[in-house]
Each structure stands twice: as C-alpha cells, then as structure tokens.
Fold:
Amino acid sequence: MEKQQKILKIVQTAAKRPVNPDPDESLFDSGLLDSFALTDLVSGIEAEFGITIPDRDLNPRKFDSINRIIEYLENQG
Structure:
C-alpha cells in the first residue's frame, strides 16, 4: 500500500469516521481532526512506519495535511 493510502487510513482511524481529505487540506482547520486526535494520529503513524516521533514534534502544524505528514516522514530518514 502506498504511503498516502496508509496515512489516509491512520487519519480515518483518528477521526473515527470515513473521511477522504484532499492531500493538501488542513486536517485540523477543516475540523476533520481536533487537538485531542493528534495523539491518536501520531501513535498511528509511529506504529505504521516503525518510527518514534519526539515530543518536540508534537505540533498539529507538522501533521496538518496528508502531504505534510509525508514530508515529515521523508525528512526522518
């Protein structure tokens, strides 16, 4: 499964509903996710991609859209 599809599944799990945002759409400004869902989103990303996201990176802006999440993951390697 490609990275974007994996992230979409994580977003849907964090949103607790089937959503299909545009890759550049703000997940938080659009109301798809709220600040409480950030921990679920980050936990899902860590589990799916086998990484640990440091506390200093727990900022909604870093995970604001599917494309920003992809960019974040690419910068971790």
Observations:
- The first helix runs from residue 3 to 15.
- Helices lie at 3-15, 37-49, 66-76.
- The chain has three helices and no strands.
